[in-house]
Amino acid sequence: MIVSAQDVRESEQFTIKSEPISSVDLMERAAQTVVAQLMSDLDMTAFDKIVVVCGSGNNGGDGLVAARLLAEKGFPTDVILTHQLPKVSDEFLYNLKKIEATQKQRNNLQCINFVDFKTNASPYSEDNILIIDAIFGIGLSRPVTDFYADVISFFNDFKNPQRLLHHLKTVIVAIDAPSGLFVDQRTPSASPRIFADITYTFQWMKWAYLLPENENCVGHVSVLDIGLKLPSEKNIHNLLIDKELVSIFYRPLRKFAHKGSHGHGLLVAGSRAMPGAAFLAATAAMRGGIGKLTVHTVDAVADILPVALPEAIIDRDVNPANVSQIRWERLAPMQALAIGPGLGVTHQTASLLKDIISEVHSPFLLDADALNILAENKTWLAFLPAYTILTPHFKEFERLAGPVQNDFERIEKLQVFSQKYNVIVVLKGAHSVVALPNGKLYVNTTGNPGMATAGSGDVLTGIILACLSKGYAPEIAAILGVYLHGKAGDLALEQESQESLIAGDICKNIGKAFHSLLE
To answer: Are 2-236 and 253-419+453-481 the same fold in CATH?
Structure first.
């Protein structure tokens, strides 16, 4: 699930009452999980000093417990207390006193050194340093200013190039949230925030960690299970697309299936200027398991496609340069249609799209230039069949829905747009978002930066077309297609680097992506 700060607060109270467990014991469990993950992710012996920066609330309490646990393992640890006011949370005070009491009883905790940031904030200028940020948690809702802005700036300065030139290591790990970052809304650009290398957030993903504008702030995000629970009646509308979810939907092929069982799909794609888009989408559809594929295209594609992909059926357009007319009577019954890759935006092609919207009464898929034509003719949106799938990237979406100022606004507009027009929108990106007309949002977890390459979107179109043709409901086809597309891109990295990855490599690994669902 993707949850809000309020959801987490409710879950903490519900867990404390229902497990039951005290708040300080829950904090102990959270910090134990953080330390265990640290030990797994990092070579802790590479650091000369561990610095835990603690605020005065429960996030600071998490930091205090983590510091004690690290000290018990023998790691020299400085605890920097940044609270300015005498008022601290009960859990913070409890764990502060626990460290002080334990230090008196056990010599191995003498390696904890308390530092008052206001009077003695050592720069650790000659140390390889691990900084653990426990100043603010996920509940922050106003910009950081004054003293805490200075604290955040001070620790961000450890990432300066001079330390790198002197081969000094700095790693910043944020507990639950990089301090200064809002998790439920846009953080003002001028508002100070910690620039973490790693963020360990508890139990569930938060929206801020999935959006491009926060990439440099959150670093690598891991979701740590600390046993939080939500009431059964709590309805969360935002979910992650992962293997567990997709495995619920995926249907392995039946023993007595035939090509008719796997559906007939029509792909309208390609132009004289962009023949490759049709080839990539068609190849992905065949690798996606479609029973039979007809490609309606122009001569430039029709002449080469039978050699490159003999499994596809060719339906030539009367126009040699751009698709312009489909003679429906010549086509066998089909289960699904996709239009857009490499089409161009000529008047003739726009006329064809208008005809398809008028003629086809079941959901179909629009991508690339089909979306650009639609953006120039927004009144057509009202006539799209319910649950039609649109697959825009960010700029294509803004042409359809209007400009946005930030990533949070884009997600809100996406949700509204999907509901208004009763369509499914796959907003493509590092974490592609599938918006459904019922208001639910599904965010993909597969894929990598190497997939930001020409033709990658055409491959996604082909995979979703195959899923539609095989009889998956449109919303399931979109979710399954997005997952398989990203997974194929991830599997391609077994042979390629992110820099060398091309769209054809994604096609080659679609089969392995299906295999992964059967493991």
So the answer is: no
Query: Hey, what CATH topology would domain 253-419+453-481 get?
Result: UDP-N-acetylmuramoyl-L-alanine:D-glutamate ligase (3.40.1190)
| Gap between the Cα atoms of 118 and 419, Å rounded | 52
- Listed residue (196, 177, 173) closest to 44, CA to CA: 173
4/387 Cα distance (integer angstroms): 28
Closest by CA to 155, choosing from 180, 172, 134, 142, is 172
Residue-wise over 454-465: b if at least 16 C-beta within 10 A, else e?
A: ebbbbbbbbbbb
Q: Is the pTM of this model over 0.90?
A: yes
Judge contact between 285 and 463, C-beta under 8 A.
Answer: yes
Find the distance separating the first CA and the last CA of the chain, reported in whole Å: 23
CATH class (in words) of the domain with range 2-236: alpha beta
The string of pLDDT tens digits covering residues 319-334 is 999 999 999 998 989 9
Handedness of CA 206, 212, 218, 221 (dihedral sign): positive
Looking from the CA of 492 toward its CB, the CA atoms found within 13 Å total: 28
Q: Would you say 278 and 342 are in contact if contact means Cβ atoms under 8 Å apart?
A: yes
**What residues does each domain of the chain span?**
2-236, 253-419+453-481
Alpha carbons 418 and 317: distance in angstroms, whole number: 32
